[in-house]
Structures are given as C-alpha cells and as structure tokens.
Amino acid sequence: xxxxxxxxxxxxxxxxxxxxxxxxxxxxxxxxxxxxxxxxxxxxxxxxxxxxxxxxxxxxxxxxxxxxxxxxxxxxxxxxxxxxxxxxxxxxxxxxxxxxxxxxxxxxxxxxxxxxxxxxxxxxxxxxxxxxxxxxxxxxxxxxxxxxxxxxxxxxxxxxxxxxxxxxxxxxxxxxxxxxxxxxxxxxxxxxxxxxxxxxxxxxxxxxxxxxxxxxxxxxxxxxxxxxxxxxxxxxxxxxxxxxxxxxxxxxxxxxxxxxxxxxxxxxxxxxxxxxxxxxxxxxxxxxxxxxxxxxxxxxxxxxxxxxxxxxxxxxxxxxxxxxxxxxxxxxxxxxxxxxxxxxxxxxxxxxxxxxxxxxxxxxxxxxxxxxxxxxxxxxxxxxxxxxxxxxxxxxxxxxxxxxxxxxxxxxxxxxxxxxxxxxxxxxxxxxxxxxxxxxxxxxxxxxxxxxxxxxxxxxxxxxxxxxxxxxxxxxxxxxxxxxxxxxxxxxxxxxxxxxxxxxxxxxxxxxxxxxxxxxxxxxxxxxxxxxxxxxxxxxxxxxxxxxxxxxxxxxxxxxxxxxxxxxxxxxxxxxxxxxxxxxxxxxxxxxxxxxxxxxxxxxxxxxxxxxxxxxxxxxxxxxxxxxxxxxxxxxxxxxxxxxxxxxxxxxx
Length: 653
Ligand SMILES: Nc1ncnc2c1ncn2[C@@H]1O[C@H](COP(=O)(O)OP(=O)(O)OP(=O)(O)O)[C@@H](O)[C@H]1O
Fold this sequence. Notes:
Oligomer: single chain
Domain ABC transmembrane type-1: 85-362
Largest sheet: 6 strands, mixed
Bound molecules: adenosine-5'-triphosphate
Domain ABC transporter: 396-638
Transmembrane segments: 192-210
GO molecular function, one term: ATP binding
Subcellular location: Cell membrane
Shape: elongated
C-alpha cells in the first residue's frame, strides 16, 4: 500500500517549476538532505556489476528476514525452489531423449513405444514440479505477512524508545518517514528472492543442458537476454532518479490531501473557505506528478522498442547459427530441437532473473533505510539502567542549567538556571510566554538533557540516573496533553497502563480531578468512545478534556505532579475547584509543580520561581515576591487591574 503510493506519486523532475505559493506554503526549496540522499548513492551504484556483486548479500538479507519470521516456511520455500530447478533440468534432458528417440531410425510405432517410458517420466517430473510450485506458493504466502510484521514491530518498538530530541529532530524524522516503506519492501523481497532462486536454478539447468548439447549455444543465450537486462536497468535508474527528485513533492501533496479531510482543520476550511485554495494546490501538484509519470512511460516505451529490436536480431542470429550447425552436420536434428527448447527456457529464466534481481535491488534500498533506522534508533534510544534515584529525596536542584533547542535559535531556552524544587510542596513556575517554563519541566522529567550544568535529586545527577526510574516518578499534564482516540476509561487509565485497572483507583482519580461529572454526562459513561470520527464516538469540550487529563495524571500516582496550565480551558468555578484539589494533594505530601499564568492561583504556592527570557529572574514565596515589586508583582497587578480598571470609552470619529 505504501509502496504503491510511493510509485503512484512519483512527481515532476528536480527542475520542475515550484510555484511561488508552494514555496511559501512549504517553506523553501523542495529538497531532502538525509535519508533519501543515501538512496542517491545507491542509485549511482545501480549498474549490472554492482547488482550481481550485491546479489548474495541481498539474498542473505532476505533469508535472514525469512528465518526470523518463520523457519519452517523458509525451509519449505528453499527446498521447493531447489527441487523445481532440478525437475526442470531433468525434464530438459528427458525431452532430449524423447526427441532423439522420435527422430531416430526405425518404424514409427517402435519409436513411439520407445519414447513412452521417457514421456511417462517427463509427466511425473512435471507433476512433482507443479506440487513443488504449490508448496512454495503456500510457504511464501505464510512468510510474507510475518516478515512484514516482524519488520514493522521492530520499527515501531525502536521508534517509540528513542529520546524526545530524536523525534523532534527533522533529519531523524525524515529517516522515520523513509524507513516506513522498508517493512513492505522486506515483505516483497521474500517473493523476489524466491523468484531469483527459482530463475537462477532453472537458468543453471538450461545452461548446463545447452553446454552439453553444444558450447556455442551458451553465448547465444546470453546475447538474446542482454536487451531485457538493459531495458529493466535503464527503467529502474530513471524511476529512482525521478523518485529522489520528487519525494518532497509527494510528501507535500499527501500533507494537503490530509489537511482537506482531517477534523481539526474542518471548521476553518469551512468558515474561512480554505477548501478551494487547498484543492487548487492539490490539483496543481497532482497534475505535475502526472506529467512526470507520462514522461517516464514515454521513455519506458522507447526503451522497450529498442530492446525488442535487439532481442529480435539476437534471436535471428541464434536460429541462423543453429541452422548452420545442422547444415554443416555438426549437430543432430534431435539435439537442435532440444536446444531450441533449452534456449527458450533459458532465456525466459534469464529475463525473469534480471527482472527479479532488479526488483530485489530496488526494495533492498528501502530495507536498507529500515536497517539504518534500526541502527540510528538504537543509538538514540533512552538508555537502560543507570544510578538509582534516592528513595525519598528532599529536593531537586538545577545547577547552572543551560539548554538550547536544536536549530538556529540564538538564545538558549534556559540560560544558566540555578534553582531548587523542595519535594512535598507546591512550587509554581511563572513568567511570560516563551520564558522557558515548559522547557524546564521537560528537563526535570528527563525528556531533554541539559547542554550545560546539572540536575540533581539530592546528590544523584540525572545525567547518569536510571531514566525509566525517573519517568516512573513523574506524572505530567502537559499543555498539549494527548487526547487519545479511545474510551474515557482508557484515557484516564493510560496514565499508568502497566498497572491493573481497578474501579477504586479510577473513581479516586476522577474525584481528584473533579472529572466525575464530565464522565457522568457521557452517553455510556466511562465506556464512551472519545473519537468523533468513529461510530458511537463523542467529543468533549476543551475544559472537559482538561479535567480528564488531570484525572489521568492523578491515576498515574507519580510522586511529582507537573501541571502545565491546568486550568487554561476551565471556567472560573472549575478553575477554583481544580486548584482546591491541587492544594489538597500537596497536603498529602505530593510534590506539585505548577505552571500557570493565573497568578491568583499561585498565591497558595510554597515557592515561586519567576523566569524571564530563559533566566531565573526572581525566587520567593508569593508574599515576598509581591513585596519585592519585581516582575511577579508587575504581572500580578496587571491581572488584578483588569477587574477594577474602568473600560476605556471608544474613540469618537
Ligand atoms: N520543541 C521546541 N523546539 C524548538 N524550540 C522550542 C521548542 N519548545 C519551545 N521552544 C522555544 O523555547 C523557548 C521557551 O519555550 P517554553 O515552551 O519553555 O516557554 P513557556 O515559558 O512554557 O511559554 P508559554 O507560557 O507560552 O507556555 C521559546 O522561545 C520557544 O520558542
């Protein structure tokens, strides 16, 4: 499916005009700099010699995949294909014997009678060949989906275990995109490898028989097949070139078609009339892609005509040579008859071989991407093991922590931050948009590593600590927490999916988050599906989702609860209620790290850190900070004034 999309979507050439609006929409030149470029190197290697030398490695890779997926089926395929090759050689030799008997001297009845046992053997061999083919088809059919599953599972497993920074790294993301084709390619490699083995064996059989019949026949066979090899290679090279140049275009048109149908974009598409705009772009991109495909088809047709003419000439030369040998008495008529059959069998095997090797090679490139992804994901995986965190730490300390997101941003998101988070308290992080609050808690949760400085849990540096243990201690309601397209129950319990789901824990979590009413109003309560695009699905309001998000964090029962703007979507009453609950949590010894712009809600915090442009600007209790008259006091009075300041009259005129 992916592959067919890939093939279908081959677009216009590298220099094909990119409209100005496309540039604006997708930002900059339509070129890739990783992943696909590695294909380009492989593409340059796509010549006959490289293909032949790489063949054993490719077959080995397919065998390994098959072996991993289902040993029994792999054995059956190999044995059946080898058996078919032998059966083919035996039939050719039997055919030679039949022809020899039929053309030889004596009464026709005797000749026919003499040929009967060999004909019977020929029929038996054909039957065995057919049975072997059936066995191979059956086993290949079993193997293919398993290979795809094994490859996909590994892809997903590795992708899910990498650091957040890798997932956000555009180069790694491109590799993820490219490698997704690898599993389908791995599946197809199995049948191509089977075809290669079968074509190879039957070619060897035909070539051996031909060599026995007359040595000059072998080069003639090769000459007849060269044109097919040349045209298959030429077309494959063109397809690669086109694909590499057009891949960004393909991604962009997928993006546009996705935007036109996704529920999130649907309201704006309708109210702002964005549909025709997007559709126009989609059509323009699809049309240019069609032009490229037409270009490729035209070239393929031309190459096909040249190859056929070449094959025709080579065939005439072959039969002329056979006739010459017959006339010169250098070959018996029966041998010439067998030679014709062997040449036909051999050339069709060679054709099949070239096409299968070509396809194997093409798919191997995508499997190569998958293997590169496996390797890179393993390198960028969250490390296993590490120093244990203290069982009951007193504080978390940031010491001169600096962090910069990858990219071109000149200013670090966190700049030389030194602060303390005492555990068992409510600590608030305050500051204007972009001041670094979310980044700070992401570092605290181990999602990113500091570029400079240390984060200590008492005396244990998180740089060397057990990362899984660290995550275990944290429950987080992020600003953009995931709205899972599952039931309300799963949306809460997914906070700790490894724990057995108990009604008590569920009820307590819903209560802590004040989400009981939200769930009570759902048509099927906790079992309501929260995905409108499915039948029976239901959609929650932003505030209702937010309460479920808090319930999820409560269900997790992490020792440190991080809540990033927990009340942004809540009405005034709900907001009060949520902060009440958060305060109640803290009184049970739970650490709460609270990020909020609603400074009235911060009054109950034990400690407030104020960030400004990535730096720590102020630290203290809310009262101390108010008295100090700094950023906190300024933001606080700005908010307070909104309720008391008179509304300015509209300007006249
Ligand atoms: N994933 C990211 N990649 C690159 N830059 C980022 C990323 N996330 C945040 N930034 C940048 O880091 C800086 C700090 O962002 P952060 O989200 O930590 O601020 P914040 O104080 O939480 O803001 P807000 O109050 O708007 O939530 C900003 O300049 C932002 O553009």
